[in-house]
């Protein structure tokens, strides 16, 4: 067994004391215990064992919630396992004013806001469980641990991507209350003002123009000022909303080094990506995160489904309830959505419930069109291929899928600067460092577990002549931005390098810069794989389907490598390394070779939108400006699937805002 230095033993002893104290068993002397650990014990304290210890230590005492698990308490069992041919109040179904399908980022907002009116009775159905109950969701740095847990995540895979070397890409989407606000990187950047002006133009409704729609961003925000960032314009920030945003997360020493390198590469500074001056520039924290004053994730569930909200007699939240189809009443004049059918498993009993006023689908950019298609709403030819009776022909359902494609650039540190690879420990020393980080986080001192990893960012335009001079970049590209001051590329840095959505962590002390296209021109589809509601649909984002997307990402890599070679990064990254798994020599490649790099590495950054697009019917729209599904009464969609076009950044903020807007609209109608 290898010998540990006294200094190492002291460090490990302190960490071990903190952990063992949690469980009330403290062997003495602890230092002797550390010295005498056998190789087998060392192995047991790494890998799966550390994950279990972290979960135990970060877990909170169980609290009773109002979440309903017995679906028979909220719906009527379908007799004999056969679906009823007609649904409506006359069948004695449990009745609600509004049924919300999906307790994701938008769904939790709707449930909380609508039930502020005691006369509106709401049923919220969520396919998963509580996100707040999962330590890896609450803890800012731990979210990626959930990407591969099928209990909590829909582990989608794309169709073969023809323009990305024919590969399938992993596409995790949350299956829990809070939706992807419970597993995202907590980056509180909302897009560019021009994005929402573009929405208003597309749907021909000025209420979505930034000067009007920005009200709903301020409504959900509870901005937490920080003395180190006095230049944030408070007049542009909400202060009394339920969602805490601010500078409550921890950052590494790499954060400000990245920003300085961006400035030295010619990217201008900005104080606030969400401020009145627009999105372009470089700043810390994007500049703020969805991390609350307790250094925990501020998810849609945590912010909106509070104990007081759940105590309302007019709100029922049922978990582990997958909606299998929408129920309709049809006559010669109209088709009306009257309720939903749902179950907790593929072979489990089916239940039905009735909605007097509205069924609102809020299941996300993949599952919202999936549910519509399963229910007979969509392209008639596609529905008939699967022998689904056509309730209403609506060609736009499942079309116009847009996702932000990302490419990573990975580097070795020169020696050791700062590294957090020990948060996924592979040996005893890393295990004790990880346990020490847990203890620090548990006592409220922040530390590595309070990081969101994507801690600094920059937004640029690929036609900015100061960054991409025509002499070096002569090809004219389509301008896909929403306005002249809106970006089409985003950069962010992470204090460790990884692949495969963090399933693979590079050996050694590493660093990474990531670039993604925030306004791609490639569009894809969501289509049925089968009529089984529990089977995954076909997801085809059509990555790099246009040349513009490929060339813009090549430009993005060029500028990213330039940033990596600017001070202070230049001096602390090992640019002498020729190790092929790192990118220190990538700048020497030709554009054609970089195109191959893009095709090989392109992945999702978890921002799919626009599959139930809010747009005029004749332009492929699925919902109108009030989010009503065309041709169906009593049916709305509210989530990222309705975005008329994708936002120039992160999607969660617009999901909060559009749900706030719809809730105000419905309450006014009541």
Automatic annotation (TrEMBL):
Reaction(s) catalysed (UniProt annotation): pyranose + acceptor = pyranos-3-ulose + reduced acceptor; a pyranoside + acceptor = a pyranosid-3-ulose + reduced acceptor; pyranose + acceptor = pyranos-2,3-diulose + reduced acceptor; pyranose + acceptor = pyranos-2-ulose + reduced acceptor
EC id: 1.1.99.29
Keywords from the named record: FAD, Flavoprotein, Secreted
InterPro entries cross-referenced by the UniProt entry: FAD/NAD-bd_sf (IPR036188), GMC_OxRdtase (IPR012132), GMC_OxRdtase_N (IPR000172), GMC_OxRtase_C (IPR007867)
GO cellular component terms, A-Z: extracellular region
Enzyme class, first EC level, given as a word: oxidoreductase
Compartments, as annotated in UniProt: Secreted
Pfam family, one: GMC_oxred_N
PANTHER family, alphabetized: CHOLINE DEHYDROGENASE, MITOCHONDRIAL, GLUCOSE-METHANOL-CHOLINE GMC OXIDOREDUCTASE
Protein name, entry field: pyranose dehydrogenase (acceptor)
The organism of origin for this protein: Psilocybe cyanescens
Lineage: Eukaryota, Fungi, Dikarya, Basidiomycota, Agaricomycotina
